[in-house]
Write a structure and sequence with these properties.
Blueprint: H1 30-44, H2 62-70, E1 82-87, H3 90-111, H4 114-120, H5 131-134, E2 137-144, H6 156-173, E3 177-178, H7 188-192, E4 199-208, H8 224-227
Antiparallel strand pairs: 1-2, 2-4, 3-4
The structure holds 3-iodo-tyrosine (IYR).
């Protein structure tokens, strides 16, 4: 990754330092911090990747707030290298499904190694992706690489990854289900979403209410002792 000190042109400072404003921290009494953190964990721990969606419409405004929240993510040199394309039009979603399933057929039938297929087998996934049409909205998240809007990208993948985390968290706490779907390769998404070549799709995220009879694999998160090391 490129990490020279040069200012990316296009950042509206002309190389000068930004003016500063007072920080407005959320003030949480120290005594309430653990409870706040625990409560948020309780909410987030119920997020599951869902593959069976209802076609029930989304409540007004939620997608917009979720994308605004995603776009609060920190980004390398504040370049904000993301684009969130929201597909709700049935014809557009049909095209998306058709193109994604064509790639997935190749993936499951030819491209994936035996080892990869073995790792996926317990999840029961296959080439068929009805959720791309059933879910009322699909958000395709693009990384914005070097081009007219972003003359110099910095930490693009990391920045977009953090933004997607915030997106999933916001949608989840609004009662909506998501699936981080990753058709591979994703180039076809530029055409489906009318985006220029410097934008590279990184995530396809159906959003909606889960189907009433939706089931999820009985899998568990690693215990804290396994993921946290205190030195
Ligand atoms: N893109 C394929 C395969 C797939 C890969 C991983 I890694 C997963 O965690 C799940 C699926 C698909 O969406 O089916």
């Amino acid at each position: 990754m490129d990490q020279t000190n040069e200012q990316p042109s296009g950042v509206p400072t002309g190389g000068l330092a930004y003016p500063t404003v007072p920080h407005r921290p959320l003030t949480v009494p120290a005594g309430a911090a653990e409870e706040r953190a625990r409560t948020f964990h309780e909410v987030m721990d119920r997020r599951r990747t869902v593959r069976d969606f209802s076609d029930r419409p989304l409540p007004e405004g939620v997608l917009e707030w979720a994308i605004r929240t995603a776009a609060t993510a920190p980004s390398g040199a504040n370049v904000q290298p993301w684009r969130f394309v929201v597909l709700t039009d049935p014809e557009r979603k049909r095209r998306l499904r058709e193109a994604a399933e064509a790639e997935e057929r190749e993936f499951y039938g030819r491209r994936a190694s035996a080892e990869w297929l073995e790792a996926l087998a317990p999840l029961g996934t296959d080439w068929s992706k009805p959720f791309l049409e059933v879910a009322p909205a699909v958000i395709v998240v693009f990384e914005v690489h070097k081009g007219p809007e972003t003359p110099r990208p910095y930490y693009t993948k990391e920045s977009v990854g953090i933004a997607v985390g915030l997106l999933l968290a916001t949608l989840h706490q609004a009662g909506l289900a998501t699936l981080t779907h990753t058709p591979s390769p994703m180039r076809f998404l530029n055409e489906v979403c009318d985006r220029p070549p410097e934008e590279r799709a990184a995530y396809v995220i159906p959003v909606g209410y889960p189907a009433e009879d939706a089931r999820v694999p009985d899998i568990h998160r690693k215990p804290l002792e396994q993921v946290m090391i205190r030195l």
